[in-house]
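task queued by scheduler; priority normal; single chain, no ligands, no partner chains; default sampling; output format set to structure tokens
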Amino acid sequence: MSSNPAETVDFELDADGSVPRRVEVDCSGLSDKGLVRQNNEDHFLIGRFGRFLKPLQTNIANPPPDDFLQEGYGLVVADGVGGHRGGEIASELAIRTLRELALDTSDWIISAGKLEAQRVMARMADRYRKIDAALTDRAQADPLLSKMATTMTLACSVGPSMILAHVGDSRAYLFRAGKLHQLTRDHTLAQEMLDQGEIQRLEDASQSTRHALMRVLGSAASYCTADVDHLALADQDQILLCTDGLTDMVANDVIAALVSESPTAAQACQKLVAEALKNGGKDNVTVVVGRYRIFANE
């Protein structure tokens, strides 16, 4: 399994730095509380956004049709932690706050150019900080929510340009040319032990260290800065976002096979969740799949 191979993939930009190529996205998500947990602390959101001009009234002969100049997609999953309903509230509040921050942005950057991508990356890191603050404020205001926190992983694309933002251990994968590549790095104690050479494989770590989160949104004691990356999508790429209810229950080679054999994003989600449940369903399981068709300029 390679780490972020898509960073090495480049794409041609127009003279003004934009990428006008048409992109079609088939995306779907599915969440299940599993077979052990009493409630579902996972949440997900799939959204489409764009810049367009819709003629409402004109005296121009043969008025132009609706013009969609740019279109993008946002995929996000969040896995809440905390006693009682804290985790459920944390993951939902994180996604709601992200949506509100996006809608409140006065100058939406609807472009796939490289300079715009840098601005989006900085803006996304700032949004994660604001989400962390919002969750911390909510927890401090309600003693019953004092331990609530959440992971959150986001994939946001315009054209073939994608921004990834990530805190926690909910993963993003790229499925390209028959191979599954993990794009995110788990913010867990086990991953730190692996990085420091204390263990050779994540599978060698104990369950407690594999689930000990070192970075989450909403915990005042944690380091919450998001990992933010930029990658270029290729035609036929698939992006999978998922909580650890999938990755703890289903091996990567099986995930790859199920994604590969599924004719639609919705069917891929159904097969992945069903496999996690078949293997025990010990946690909430949430998956979001996006499939990208990228057409050359005409």
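post-processing summary
- The first helix runs from residue 86 to 103.
- The first strand starts at residue 23 and ends at 32.
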